[in-house]
Amino acid sequence: MKPKKQVLRRPTSSVARGKSASNGFSLIGSRVVENEWLDQHPEKLRAHASEYVVVEGRRIVAHNKDAALAIQSARRRGISSPYVFFVEPPLPPNTFRIGL
Hints:
The protein is α+β, with helices and mostly antiparallel strands. It has 3 helices and 3 strands. It has one domain.
C-alpha cells in the first residue's frame, strides 16, 4: 500500500489565530487575555506600584518588590511560564517619563 500524502493547511480555528480561550486563559504563545485585562483594569495595579506583578488569565497570581520572589510564588501556584512585569509608581504632578 502507498502511504497517504499529507496535506498541510493553514490553521483556521480561533486558537490558531491567537484569540483568547473561552476559559479566560491565554493560548499557546499569546498573552491576549492578560493584556486585555490589564488595559481594562488599571485600578487593580495601583495597589502594586513599585512591585513586580505576575498575571495569569484575568487575575494577579503573585506580586513582590523582588521579581525572582514573584516568579517563584507564581511557579509554586503551578504557573510554568509567568507573565511578569514591573508596575511603575505614579508620577508627581507636572512630570512625565521619556525614553524606555
